[in-house]
Write a structure and sequence with these properties.
The protein is of the alpha/beta class. The protein is about 40% helix and about 20% strand. It has 8 helices and 11 strands. The protein has a 5-stranded parallel beta sheet with strand order 2-1-3-4-5, with helices on both faces. Helix 1 links the parallel strand 1 and strand 2. Helix 2 runs parallel beside helix 3, helix 6 packs across helix 7 and helix 7 packs across helix 8. The longest helix has 17 residues. The relative contact order is 0.11.
């Protein structure tokens, strides 16, 4: 899962990035409203964590602008203000939740999990498609058909996670490059091809009937062939 953190206070940002990375989340950090808005508009994130008071655009303005563009990424607002009016303004702008500083890291993570739960399709937070099960806590790929299991590399896991969360859709190489490597990454398309090959080999290794199909000239699609 990839998170965008927009926070201008340096120590707070460093602490939050460390908290997210310890939970095995990918996290990109922006320190001002303009760069935060630009990143949020890329629509590659699973959750946005926005401070309200920022240089340039404030958190409220960022949420308003991305919602007007039809971006529905869950948004958690962070603020030092505890007044009801500020919370109402944030929610009215399109934010999904609100957390007042100071806060406990366990509560922060619980709020993020709650906001992103719509992408998790089982009660135990695993992701499933066809005969495969992905375990976010261990990066394990399990096949229910054969009972075989293998541990995935981080990018292999992210590829399958992204495909499962967008099942029945064709994802372009551009979308995969931005999602897995980040919107500022210089990852080339051959990197996508290479890691796609690695991921396919892992699916074959566990004996899964789930496959990653190339759609010529378009991208990739996850399919389950139960024959």
């Amino acid at each position: 899962m990839r998170i965008l953190l927009v926070e201008d206070e340096k120590r707070m940002a460093q602490a939050l990035c460390e908290i997210f990375r310890l939970e095995k989340y990918e996290v990109d950090h922006c320190a001002d409203g303009e760069s935060g808005l630009y990143a949020a508009e890329s629509d590659i994130y699973d959750c946005l964590v926005l401070d309200v008071m920022l240089p340039g655009y404030n958190g409220f303005e960022i949420v308003k602008r991305i919602r007007k563009k039809g971006i529905h990424t869950p948004v958690l607002m962070l603020t030092a203000k505890s007044g009801v009016e500020d919370k109402v303004e944030g929610l009215d702008c399109g934010a999904d939740d609100y957390l007042t500083k100071p806060f406990d890291s366990k509560e922060l993570l619980a709020r993020v999990r709650a906001l992103t739960r719509r992408n998790i399709n089982t009660p135990d937070n695993t992701l499933t498609f066809g005969d495969i099960v992905l375990e976010p806590s261990t990066f394990n790929l399990n096949c229910r058909t054969t009972g075989q299991s293998i541990r995935l590399g981080k990018k292999e896991f992210r590829i399958l996670e992204y495909l499962i969360c967008n099942q029945k859709q064709i994802l372009t190489r551009e979308q995969l490059a931005e999602k897995i490597w980040g919107y500022e990454s210089e990852a080339e398309y051959n990197n996508v091809e290479a890691y796609m090959s690695f991921t396919r080999k892992k699916l074959t290794f566990v004996g899964s009937k789930t496959t990653i199909k190339s759609v010529r000239g378009v991208g990739y699609e996850l399919r389950y062939e139960n024959v």
